[in-house]
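At this stage, I put together a protein sequence along with its fold in token form, as given directly below:
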Amino acid sequence: METRIWLGIYRKLSAALFAVALTLQHPGSVAQPIGVANLRCEYQRQPLGVQHSHPILSWEITSNQRSTTQTAYQILVASTRKALNQNLGDCWDSGKVATGQSIQIPYAGRPLAAATTYYWKVKTWTNKAAPPHWSAVAEWQMGLLAAPDWRGAQWIAYEQLPAERVAVLPVDGKKDTYNGNNVLPLLRKQFTTKNNVRHATLFISGLGQFEAVLNGQKVGRHFLDPGWTKYDQQAQYVTFDVTSQLRSGA
């Protein structure tokens, strides 16, 4: 008789604990909206200097519902943020594409221009009943895609030493043979902005390493740019957004 009493109490406690567990796991049974996040172009967020004419795009589905999978997507790419906010993909509108793929989607719109910023967003459909939503706006900026895009740019160098006092070495570069010191020149360019600058990008290359300074502040957080190559065959360059470092008149 005593055993039966304890068994009954145990069953009641188990039922109570199970009810509490259900309450904790399903507060109000309200599903959160399904969203789209982590938009990337060429595996980066808001990249600068994109070199590919058909960059690849990717994103992630966010949901608190289990087994949520994508069933279709639509990508819009626009030349202005205003156009994109009006759901106008003047560069590319993929239309609704029935697929679960959300990575390595190649851009398939009109030709992209060098040194130009493009804005994009994506809408996804899933296997859930929730209506599709547009993601937040993301962007990327193209790099300089061909030699003509560098038109107007010039190589600058320290050329004050007479030729007889310069030794061209494969490792050290130029050396002042008179004093025996390696030459590390500081090259300066001064210019004045006439109007308010809406956007400014610095494309810079060098044979060796450089450190750029604008209005007394180091540009970027990089060191040892732009990377060593065979300079008689290829020279790399680096892209910086320097809008915040420019000010009116300087």
Summary: Residues 92 and 153 are 31 Å apart (CA to CA). The first strand starts at residue 35 and ends at 41. The longest helix spans residues 2-25. The helical segments are 2-25, 81-85.
